[in-house]
Amino acid sequence: MRRPGRHFLQIPGPSTVPDRILRAIDNPTMDHRSPEFGDLGRRALDGMKTIFGTESDVIIYPASGTGAWEAALVNTLSPGDRVLMCETGQFAWLWQRLANRLGLTPEIIETDWRQAADADAIEARLRADTGHEIRAVCVVHNETSTGCTSDIPAVRAAIDAANHPALLLVDTISSLGSVDYRHDEWGVDVTVGGSQKGLMLPPGLSFNAVSGKALAASQTAALPRSFWDWGEMIAANKTGYFPYTPATNMLYGLVEAIDMLHEEGLEAVFARHRRHAAATRLAVETWGLEVLCRMPEHYSPVLTAVMMPEGHSADALRGIIHSQLNMSLGNGLGRLQDRVFRIGHLGDFNDLMLLGTLSGIEMGLVRAGVPHRKGGVQAAIDLLADGAAQATTRAA
Ligand code: PLP
User: Fold this and answer.
1) Rounded to whole angstroms, how far apart are CA atoms 365 and 361?
2) 215 sits in which H/E element
């Protein structure tokens, strides 16, 4: 059946790919060993440094984010190494499972999946590790399953306060290009990123930004690696080339995405995300529904996870909205299955797209018979229409 109009892709990534990026990807595939390719490769690699906020090496893999997770671990660690991981939600849990499968020994700081990483708990655990057996601390910056964002400078400060030499590994797969992030300034050793969220690209590229300390660790790290090995990549990347066939057309798109982010200005991009998140939460509260993230200081600018009233199915609501209104919302993952729906408000997104999204949800709540109060969309309109509020959110 033909479905007129555009699909609303309001999952928290992949996000909607703007036409400008689709047109860039549409260029003819080039010879990746040709003289011209080196220029494209260097533009992509240098451009990504400005997005990560780093002067050090950035690695680009033709892989989804999971590949870059694995790369961060196998390049820096050895079999049996202890890693301290904060289980903030499903993605932190998956990273932990991956570490287990690689033969590492994760130590878990658990949460109730309604809050971000607890820097005090990290500091306490590191202080207790007087033998410095913990080799790395792994934190998901923006937990896409819950809509909670962790304070990375606070985690860095916790490691420093404990005077602990562990590496700091941060997953920014759903925050990079949407939430303020500074690899060098915040003292992160490996930052993991992905293409399909704030970078507005299709899925298929992922990244490691690598500190000097992480690079030094890779010299002695003994986990087996070949495809993910930083050494060969960095050597080939110096002239803009790759040790194996890169995802050429995705690199065209990546260069375009970096240009678009800088044209808008990263600060403006981050402020736009915060403002849309605030309007979304206002709508949710007006409906009388509960945001999953419990602490305002942890609210994600990228997505909002909404709890269903007792006895109501998030998947039934999502199903009605998908089939009748042509909009995808994120599902509840892991232990949150059917308990929450997730609203993505990230990437190439504006006020009217947000209002369309919220309208679809308000209509869906009616059609699915979910108890709620009216007026969520109107509250969001009032907030977005108010120039003063806009200025305040920008300054926040
Ligand atoms: N980490 C986070 C925070 C994510 O949101 C995702 C995917 O959504 C991943 C890791 C896994 O990435 P991928 O599905 O691209 O392999």
Assistant:
1) 6
2) helix 212-220
Share of the chain above pLDDT 70, in %: 97
Residue nearest to atom 13 of ligand 1 (CA): 65
pLDDT digit string, tens, across residues 265-302: 999 999 999 999 999 999 999 999 999 999 999 999 99
CA-CA distances (angstroms) from residue 4 to 1, 10, 167, 363? Answer: 10, 17, 50, 18
E strands along 275-334, which residues?
290-291, 303-307, 327-329
Q: Residue 190, Cβ neighbours under 10 Å: how many?
A: 30
Note the pLDDT of residue 386: 87
Which of 144, 169, 331, 342 is the pocket-test mutation for ligand 1 (most atoms within 8 Å of CB)?
144
Q: In the chain, where does the domain assigned CATH 3.90.1150.10 lie?
A: 8-15+265-395
CATH assignment of 8-15+265-395, among 3.40.640.10, 3.30.70.1140, 3.90.1150.10, 3.10.129.10: 3.90.1150.10
Atom 12 of ligand 1 has which residue's CA nearest to it? 65
CATH number at 19-262 = 3.40.640.10
Question: Quick one: CA torsion of 115, 119, 124, 130, rounded to 10 degrees?
Answer: 130
Listed as own residue / partner, the contacts of 22-29 with beta carbons closer than 8 Å and 24 or more positions apart are 22/253, 24/252, 24/253, 24/255, 24/256, 25/202, 25/249, 25/250, 25/252, 25/253, 26/249, 27/249, 27/252, 29/248, 29/249
Contact residues of ligand 1, CB 6 A cut-off: 13, 64-66, 91, 140, 144, 171, 173-174, 194, 203
